Amino acid sequence: MKIAILSRNRKLYSTNSLVEACKRRGHEVRVIDYLRCHMDITSHRPTIYLGDEELKGFDAIIPRVGATHTFFGCAVVRQFEMMGVYPANESVAISRSRDKLRSLQLLARKGVGLPVTGFAHDPRATKHLVSLVGGAPLVIKLLEGTQGVGVVLAETSKAAESVIEAFRGLNANILAQEFIKEAGGADIRCFVVGERVVASIKRQAKEGEFRSNLHRGGSATVVKITPEERMTAVRAAKILGLNVAGVDLLRSNHGPVVMEVNSSPGLEGIETATNKDVAGLIVSFLEKNAKPGKTRTKGAG
Fold first, then answer.
1. Is 103 left (phi over 0), alpha (psi -120 to 50) or beta?
2. 8-state DSSP, 137
């Protein structure tokens, strides 16, 4: 197969791991900086260019679209879909997962376990928003934040009101969520490929920190997940339409709750901790599923 990896940096661990996995399995692979692409979107013959070169002949793409470039990245993925190229994750699923509010609403509608979450615009609703999620301590999240940036633990109701007021002053959209104290600063990252969890790790926040992101100094260890956790992770990815996803769970007193579903999950932490070839499993998924025009959305939506 001829596979394109849409990534801004060939040297990133995840990108390089995918490149090597493609080569090991005998595929032709190319890394394309999607921000350098431009498109002819005419209906009779949609095309993508990189400089003067027309990009064609690809059987599949693996999108590694950064959160800060979701809009343009999804447009490039959608263009490939319109050309009949099979994506590991479809454009509509990526944009769904990047909208934290929308993704939580979709998961809630299907009965997936979530932390109690509130959302409001009117400043007069702030006190009720805080009480809605169980009062302090509570977590306040920027909707646009990634890798733990824009996530604040408010220890008191007064602190929560101050943080919410500050974010509102910046015209930022925020969520308020209950703080799952019993999780002890740890979460479970379940890596889903197709309709199964292929690897899972427990991420533990460093001392004095409640965010367990590895980018923030958290540590990763192999963890055995329960059948309920496995089912929750697979369901969450499927509801958002993702074939490849990192589903972050917390172990609460009332079962697993989904914190976030990531459409471009990093490979370094999970491959290093589990010693599994997760990149190879992604390529294997493409081998079984990549057929011309097989995208569900056909580039629409």
1. alpha
2. S
Tokens 């998924």 correspond to 285
Distance CA 83, CA 44 (A): 10
pTM given for the model: 0.88
Helices 91-98 and 100-109: crossing angle in degrees, nearest 10, is 100
- Distances, alpha carbon 119 to alpha carbons 101, 134, 171, in Å: 8, 14, 14
Beta-strand relationship, 86-87 and 151-154:
unpaired
- What token pair was written down for 193? 């490929």
Which pair of structure tokens corresponds to residue 208? 């004095």
Phi, then psi, of 129 in degrees rounded to 5: -60, -45
- Residue 275: predicted pLDDT: 95
Q: State how far the Cα of 87 lies from the Cα of 135, in Å rounded to an integer.
A: 42
- Write down the H helix ranges in 252-293: 268-274, 278-289
Overall residue count recorded for the chain in this entry: 301
164 in Cβ contact with 126 (< 8 Å): yes
Bridge-based pairing of strands 117-119 and 53-54 is unpaired
Name the token pair of 140. Answer: 């306040």
Q: What is the pLDDT of residues 9-29, one digit of tens each?
A: 999 999 999 999 999 999 999
Domains of the chain (ranges; CATH) run 2-96 (3.40.50.20), 117-179 (3.30.1490.20), 182-284 (3.30.470.20)
d(CA 244, CA 232): 15
Residue 152: DSSP 8-state: E
Burial of 109 (0-12, 13-18, 19+ CB in 10 A): exposed
The DSSP letter of residue 226 is P
Query: What is d(CA 213, CA 220) in angstroms, rounded to the nearest whole number?
Result: 9
